[in-house]
Structures are given as structure tokens and as C-alpha cells.
Amino acid sequence: GSLVNTLREARPTGFLGVPRVWEKMQEGMKAVSPKGSLLRKRVADWAKAVGLQYSYSVMNGENVVPWGFMLYNNLVFKKVRAALGLDRCRMCCTGAAPITKETLEYFMSLNIPVKELYGMSESSGPHTVSIDEYRIG
């Protein structure tokens, strides 16, 4: 239960977590969101829809910035990243097991692209990681 507290304190520039770490963070954020007002829920839902649209455009190489993205980035996404301790993080990665598309899309909707890496400890660790671009799956 202290990972987010540690991340807030350390504020890393790179973070690698197994899929279960990302899933637990997702579950925690989803548990907190229903406690807000109806207006906050609507703004958060709209922001996540725009964030997912933006992330998919970046993933596909289009780099189209949808209307409202900059506003939501300043009102929602930056605050979420700071609350998670990932405000300085330039590269968020996952590995060691398959991660669900739902979890990847959830973080993409918050403008936190989680990049998958592949490696084997038997042969030097990470083999491939998508640094500049990312793909789901």
C-alpha cells in the first residue's frame, strides 16, 4: 500500500512495474473516482475520452491534438500524474507478464502511455522496448 507514497516522494523519471502494479493503481483510482461530485465525474469522463483519442493518434503517428486536450491536460492529467508521483516520469513501462488492453487504455486515457517491454533474465534482461513509439499488444 505504500508504492504510491514512495513514488510521490521519489518522483522518478522512469518507472517499470509488472502488470499487477498497474492494475492495482488502476483499481485504486477507480475506487476513488465515485466519491467526487457529478460535475467532477463528467469532467473526468470527458477528459479520459479526449485523452484516449489523443493517445491513439500519437500511437498511430498522426499527432492530432483533439479539441479540449490542452485544457484537460492542465486540469486533470497533470494532477493525476502528480498524485501518482509520476509527474516527472518520461517513460512508464511494464513487463514480465501480459498486460490487458483495458489497463493500457485506462492509462492512455490519462495521458500516461505505458510501454511494454520484452526480455529474459537468462539473456541479459530487456531485449526490446518501444521508446519513441508504442503499440498496444
Automatic annotation (TrEMBL):
Keywords assigned by UniProt, alphabetized: Fatty acid metabolism, Ligase, Lipid metabolism
E.C. number: 6.2.1.3
One Pfam family per UniProt: AMP-binding
SUPFAM superfamilies: Acetyl-CoA synthetase-like (SSF56801)
Chain ranges passing through the membrane: none
Gene Ontology molecular function: ligase activity
The protein's name in its UniProt record: long-chain-fatty-acid--CoA ligase
PANTHER family, per the entry: LONG-CHAIN-FATTY-ACID--COA LIGASE (PTHR43272), LONG-CHAIN-FATTY-ACID--COA LIGASE ACSBG2 (PTHR43272:SF80)
InterPro entries: AMP-dep_synth/lig_dom, ANL_N_sf
Stretches assigned to the AMP-dependent synthetase/ligase domain: 3-129
Superkingdom per UniProt: Eukaryota
